[in-house]
């Protein structure tokens, strides 16, 4: 979540100089090239199981493909503040979906934590200074909700697949599919005449640290955590994003936001898994 929080700042810098679809394509391509270097090692751990193609393809289509399309379009029509409130619903959506599809159960303490974190995110969003215009907020919020639905599908499929395949192998497949998917969008988009050293550094950061690191760590966490528990940590995204904005963009945090940040951390703490009294060996990643 710390890495993903920093990605909002990096993405904000990148899209001011380059078409968003080009940024996403280059980001995916850099990640794919990095994974191509270590693919001979990753391929040795790939033991395909019959029928899994639909889960693997669905995972990559949900995220990064559909997620990034909906997210990029949503921010054209709604404000960042309203989009943030829709994003805060992700942990609850994952918890409900995991209950029906993965038979996961959560305690009353965890459900209360989900709600507390959502309240904190909403307060933090409403009390922040938002200069982004919302020409069609309803359309934008619907698109943001569809992005969250894609994130829910992605989380459930990764949770299903990490019992069969290594987490970083799944992350590599995401990069390969994402690169192929966004290539046509990039080809028909406007490219800048030149790319500054700062922009190139940001793109490399997004492609290596975020596409490999953030996604790889999140996928790995799903090897040992319930889907709802892992998704609960996404409520920390606006907190870390705000912290990076203060440090790097000289933004300010008002008193109400400090209180909201405390609520978010308290909520996330409640959604976490309590350690068992007897030590358990985490399940190994097969393949």
Automatic annotation (TrEMBL):
Keywords: Cell membrane, Membrane, Transmembrane, Transmembrane helix. Gene3D superfamilies: 1.10.3730.20. Residues 1-125, 140-271 form the EamA domain. It is found in: Cell membrane. The chain crosses the membrane at residues 20-41, 53-70, 82-102, 109-126, 138-158, 165-187, 199-218, 230-249, 255-272. InterPro entries: AA-Vitamin_Transporters, EamA_dom, EmrE-like. GO terms for cellular component: plasma membrane. SUPFAM superfamilies: Multidrug resistance efflux transporter EmrE. Signal peptide: none annotated. It is a multi-pass membrane protein. This is DME family DMT superfamily transporter. It comes from Oleiphilus messinensis. The lineage of its organism: Bacteria, Pseudomonadati, Pseudomonadota, Gammaproteobacteria, Oceanospirillales.
């Amino acid at each position: 979540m710390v890495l993903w929080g920093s990605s909002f700042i990096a993405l904000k810098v990148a899209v001011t100089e380059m078409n968003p679809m080009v940024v996403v394509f280059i980001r995916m391509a850099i990640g794919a090239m990095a994974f191509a270097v270590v693919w001979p090692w990753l391929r040795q751990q790939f033991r395909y199981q019959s029928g899994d193609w639909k889960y693997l393809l669905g995972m990559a289509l949900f995220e990064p493909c559909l997620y990034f399309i909906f997210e990029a379009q949503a921010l054209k029509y709604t404000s960042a503040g309203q989009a943030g409130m829709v994003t805060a619903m992700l942990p609850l959506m994952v918890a409900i979906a995991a209950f029906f599809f993965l038979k996961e159960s959560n305690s009353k303490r965890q459900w209360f934590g989900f709600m507390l974190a959502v309240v904190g995110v909403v307060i933090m969003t409403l009390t922040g200074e938002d200069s982004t215009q919302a020409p069609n907020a309803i359309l934008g919020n619907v698109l943001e909700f569809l992005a969250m639905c894609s994130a829910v599908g992605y989380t459930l499929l990764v949770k299903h697949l990490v019992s069969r395949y290594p987490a970083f192998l799944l992350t590599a497949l995401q990069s390969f599919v994402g690169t192929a998917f966004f290539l046509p969008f990039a080809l028909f988009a406007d490219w800048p005449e030149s790319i500054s050293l700062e922009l190139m550094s940001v793109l490399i950061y997004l492609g290596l640290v975020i596409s490999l690191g953030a996604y790889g760590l999140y996928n790995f966490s799903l090897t040992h955590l319930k889907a709802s528990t892992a998704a609960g940590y996404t409520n920390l995204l606006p907190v870390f994003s705000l912290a990076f904005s203060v440090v790097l963009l000289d933004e300010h945090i008002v008193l109400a936001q400090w209180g909201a940040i405390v609520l978010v951390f308290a909520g996330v703490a409640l959604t976490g898994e309590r350690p068992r009294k007897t030590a358990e060996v985490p399940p190994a990643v097969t393949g």
